[in-house]
From TrEMBL:
Source organism (scientific name): Vagococcus carniphilus
Record SUPFAM superfamilies: PTSIIA/GutA-like (SSF141530)
Gene3D superfamilies associated with the record: Phosphotransferase system, glucitol/sorbitol-specific IIA component
The protein's name: PTS sorbitol transporter subunit IIA
Domain of life the protein comes from: Bacteria
GO cellular-component term (any): cytoplasm
GO molecular function, one term: protein-N(PI)-phosphohistidine-sugar phosphotransferase activity
GO BP field: phosphoenolpyruvate-dependent sugar phosphotransferase system
InterPro entries: PTS_IIA_glucitol/sorbitol-sp, PTS_IIA_glucitol/sorbitol_sf
Signal peptide: none
PANTHER family in alphabetical order: PTS SYSTEM GLUCITOL/SORBITOL-SPECIFIC EIIA COMPONENT, PTS SYSTEM GLUCITOL_SORBITOL-SPECIFIC EIIA COMPONENT
Length: 117
């Protein structure tokens, strides 16, 4: 299991209109930080994420339904992954995304623990 902690949340990172959260580690540029949730990993061992795994924002549980082809690579290299809270379409799927259920945004604040299990 991997764990990270939310260090900061950009002003434009969370919108009820877009069912998407963009995560980066602390290496994100200032411009990216405006649109991102910055996470700090507790360990350097990044586990490969697969369909059927779970993602937790504190106690809020999500099931991973689809993993984009470069999602694991981006997570390992720069702590970057997009979490999409809707059905994965065959044509418009993001290459760096995890598509999860339920289709509702989590409550996130600084200090929220994200667990990849």
């Amino acid at each position: 299991m991997m764990e990270s902690v939310v260090m900061s949340i950009g002003k434009e990172a969370i919108s009820q209109k877009e069912p998407l959260i963009i995560l980066f580690d602390e290496s994100a540029t200032e411009e990216l930080r405006k649109f991102s949730v910055i996470q700090q990993f507790k360990t350097k061992d990044i586990k490969k994420i697969a369909v059927g795994d779970c993602l937790f924002f504190d106690d809020q549980k999500y099931t991973i339904k689809s993993v984009g082809p470069v999602a694991n690579q981006h997570l390992e290299e720069m702590g970057h992954i997009s979490i999409v809270f809707k059905e994965a379409g065959s044509e418009d799927q993001l290459a760096n995304a995890l598509y999860v259920e339920p289709f509702e945004l989590p409550n996130i604040k600084e200090g929220t623990v994200i667990r990849y299990a």
